[in-house]
Amino acid sequence: MKQIESYCHKKILVLGLAKSGVTAASLLHKLGAFVTVNDKKPLSENPEAQGLLEQGIKVICGEHPIELLDEGFELIVKNPGIPYFNPMIEGAIEKGIPVITEVELAYEISEAPFIGITGTNGKTTTTTLVYEMLKEGNKQPLIAGNIGTVASGVAQKAEKDDTIVIELSSFQLMGIKTFNPKIAIITNLYDAHLDYHGTRKEYIQAKAKITENQTELEYLVINADQEETMEIAKHSKAKIIPFSTKKELAEGAYIKEGWLLFNGEPVMEISEIALPGVHNLENILSAMAAAKLSGVENSAIQVVLKTFTGVRHRLQYVADVNGRKIYNDSKATNILATVKALSAFNGPTILLAGGLDRGNEFDDLIPYLKNVKSLITFGQTAPKLERVGKLAGIKTISRVDNVEKAVPEAYRYSEPGDVILLSPACASWDQYKSFEVRGDIFIEAVHKLK
């Protein structure tokens, strides 16, 4: 890692812990900063904070006292999940204290270049595909961000010949200042996280920050099938590499006569791809573009696409139980993700859905429920989903307490040849700490069926 001096003897507040806050605080301490950590969880219930205390880092737990901002901090590193309308952040901005996320720290200390992936849907799959393609092509990738280890932890170990492949949320991107990926990917843009950003415009502006510092020496891989993504491209200084599932392009990644092509060169036949779902072609094309720009041979790309069947919790094949194929799509935390999951299957489907109520309705699902013969609901949104299920003409609708109970209920209404699909269309936080926990409970319940 680069031994930078810019944080030495600076007074820095790390706001919010979790993995990113712990790593950032430890790193800043190593770099000679005077670090204070502030986390809402009480110290007695906070082993992470206790560990930082043992390192000699000042820790304040149990609340976010606004008067803390009067202590002369020169920088705040905030947890990405803390919104900008939080009183501490608003107070810091009023006082002119810069606010960043730990991704910025990672970039500043990294010896290795970055490939950054963002967008509404497909980030995790695309990030994993890029990583696997670079790995198969012997390009020494490291994976970081929401999908892997904390970025500033990975960056401490990265060497010049490595490449850090990182999944980036809009929350993380709002806190960058100089972060500049060698290759940036924007998969697509739809409504998401409006409770955090306030408006679609602000959400898109946050996503656009991935290319904000790029120059003509870097690349922006962008979805050519969306006006809003192409509008971002117009304002980027990077070399634009478009991808499209709908039209032939003069350059970039696209589909023609059943083949994946890059800059006019056939790379692989679509029929040989193992990953299910038409929607995954967007992810595949953008990942292929990043791999080709990184010098990966077609043969390595082919090996990955012939064997990669999906990431955990994203349309993940779990098991065949007495002729029922069961899929875990717990990462489908919005309607569009569930639409894409439903579109991946043509046969009779038992859908398990529900979760945190963010105030939206689910009518947009109706056209995609034609193959759903049974709907099993749970969580806060169960009544809303049941209303939509009735409008769609689903004959069997059943409400259960949670995902664990939804699995045997779904099996009860299924027959050999059916697909049982967990694709909640909602965040998990009404009942579960994360979509990963929800998905793991689902998988465990499936294995109990056996």
Fold and architecture overview:
The chain is α/β, with parallel strands linked by helices. The protein folds into 3 domains: 90 residues, 3-Layer(aba) Sandwich (Rossmann fold), CATH 3.40.50; 204 residues, 3-Layer(aba) Sandwich (UDP-N-acetylmuramoyl-L-alanine:D-glutamate ligase); 134 residues, Protein-Tyrosine Phosphatase, Chain A, CATH 3.90.190.20. It contains 16 helices and 20 strands. It is globular. The mean pLDDT is 94.
Q: Helix fraction?
A: 25-40%
SS-derived structural category: alpha/beta
Name the overall outline.
globular
- Overall pLDDT: 94
Widest β-sheet, arrangement of strands: 7-8-6-9-10-11-12-13-14
Number of helices: 16
Produce a short descriptive summary:
The protein is of the alpha/beta class and 450 residues long. Helix content is 34%, strand content 21%. The mean pLDDT is 94.
Compile the SSE list and pairings.
Blueprint lengths: L10 E5 L2 H13 L3 E6 L7 H8 L3 E4 L13 E4 L8 H8 L4 E2 L1 H8 L4 E5 L4 H14 L4 E5 L5 H7 L5 E5 L2 H4 L9 E4 L7 H4 L2 H9 L10 E5 L3 H8 L4 E6 L8 E4 L2 E4 L2 E5 L10 H14 L4 H10 L8 E6 L2 E5 L6 H9 L5 E5 L18 E6 L4 H10 L4 E4 L3 H10 L6 E4 L12 H15 L1
Parallel strand pairs: 1-2, 1-4, 2-3, 4-5, 6-8, 6-9, 7-8, 9-10, 10-11, 11-12, 16-20, 17-18, 17-20, 18-19
Antiparallel strand pairs: 12-13, 13-14, 15-16
Helix pairs in contact: 4-6, 5-11, 5-12, 15-16
